[in-house]
Specification:
It is a single chain. The chain is of the alpha/beta class. It has 2 domains: about 260 residues, 3-Layer(aba) Sandwich (D-Maltodextrin-Binding Protein, domain 2); about 90 residues, 3-Layer(aba) Sandwich (D-Maltodextrin-Binding Protein, domain 2), CATH 3.40.190.10. The chain contains 17 helices and 10 strands. The strands form 2 sheets. A 5-stranded mixed sheet has the order 2-1-3-10-4. It has a 5-stranded mixed sheet with strand order 7-6-8-5-9, with helices on both faces. Strand 6, helix 7 and strand 7 form a beta-alpha-beta unit. Helix 7 crosses helix 15. The protein starts with 11 loop residues before the first helix and ends in a 13-residue tail after the last helix.
């Protein structure tokens, strides 16, 4: 299935339980594949601009999403609905749904999108294979990976509780991330029993294993809806603090479309500022318009929006602005990647000068949010 075609309509159960794709086993290719070359998009070539962009002067660009159109892209929905993209100088910004077997890196390398939403755990290995890509900002200051256990079964509240337990882990990239989590905490695979599983938490609820690799914003909500008391052990707060839903682009775009990228980032900041402040409207956009064909539930999407705010909003965000990364956070990401088997330098992976310039030129964009508790 092409990543540029609409994803199939998914049942609620599969849609909400099949979230773990940031670490999914996506084949990273360097160059244009035949599939991507055959795909078409409305993305146009946006010239480098100087100063404030005139209406429509930046043309139409495409953004490759990391997953189906659900609550995770609420900021993009607000930027569209409130006209922030248009005010930034774009005729339109086309949001390309993900969920297929190819991801943001492939779309960028094929010229099908100007920006893609991804994760360092995917982008870094691609760069090490020769792809000229850079991360220019991040939506999530904390990655959403966690181990979900149940208080009614065998609660795993600390890393020390992991020893001797059975852990359900999805094969591929998620297994790599889990093994990195163990390594970062001085453990190995011999300290636990890994059980290959899918995304449905039914085996966890049935007691087939003790914990399930999950998304903080997803499976714990499902477990609670099923009548259980979720116990969450987050990776970001326990030794593996890499970011997620990162804005990735090509070095060529940074060199030749810098002002276009900055205009895009400004509109994104505005959109995500609104989204973070209004989880209920975010959920309505996701369930009733952009993800209408995905059979999403507004109430659950609202809960997920509230949960993802715990990953987006931090003291550093209040100080420096959305999408920024401190030097400390960058260093933590490099260390996390090394634990997961990817050795890369910060200079090779990140270029945060664009988002920093956006805030230098538009300091009013920095917003003081109420930081939610987990």
């Amino acid at each position: 299935m092409s990543i540029f075609s609409a994803p199939p309509v998914l049942k609620k159960d599969y849609d909400r339980r099949g979230f773990l794709r940031l670490g999914g086993s996506v084949g990273l290719v360097v160059g244009t594949t035949a599939l991507l070359a055959a795909c078409s998009t409305d993305s146009g070539s946006s010239p480098k601009s100087s100063g404030a962009a005139a209406a429509g002067s930046l043309g139409t660009i495409a953004v490759q999403l990391s997953w189906i159109k659900n609550i995770e892209f609420a900021g993009e929905y607000f930027a569209t609905e409130k006209g922030y993209y248009t005010k930034a100088g774009f005729d339109a910004v086309t949001l390309l749904a993900g969920g297929g077997q190819t991801g943001a890196e492939e779309a960028l390398l094929a010229g099908q999108a100007l920006v893609g939403l991804s994760s360092p755990s995917i982008t870094a290995p691609s760069i090490n294979k020769g792809a000229t890509l850079k991360i220019i900002g991040t939506t999530f200051q904390k990655n959403p990976f966690c181990l979900l256990s149940l208080d009614e079964k065998t609660p795993i509240k600390t890393v020390a509780d992991l020893k001797g337990k059975k852990i359900g882990v999805q094969s591929g990239g998620n297994q790599t991330i889990f093994e990195g989590f163990l390594k970062a905490n001085g453990l190995t695979t011999s300290d636990v029993t890994m059980v290959t599983t899918q995304y449905d938490i039914a085996p966890l609820e049935a007691g087939k294993y003790d914990a399930h690799m999950s998304y903080i914003t997803n499976e714990p909500i499902l477990a609670e809806a099923d009548g259980f008391t979720p116990v969450v052990l987050g990776f970001a707060d326990n030794g593996l603090p890499f970011v997620a839903e990162t804005f990735t682009t090509t070095q060529d775009a940074i060199d030749n479309k810098r002002d276009t990228l900055k205009a895009f980032l400004k509109a994104e900041v505005q959109g995500w500022t609104d989204a973070a402040k209004d989880p209920a409207q975010s959920a309505k956009y996701a369930a009733e318009k952009y993800g209408k064909d995905q059979d999403l539930d507004v109430t659950e999407q609202t809960k997920e929006a509230e949960a993802q705010n715990t990953l987006i909003l931090t003291d550093d965000v209040n100080k420096n602005g959305l999408f920024t990364m401190t030097d400390e956070l960058v260093a933590e990401n490099i260390a996390s990647l090394k634990a997961m088997g990817t050795d890369i330098t910060a200079e090779k992976l990140f270029d945060l000068t664009l988002i920093n310039e956006v805030y230098k030129e538009n300091p009013e964009l920095i917003t003081t949010f109420t930081i939610p508790t987990a």
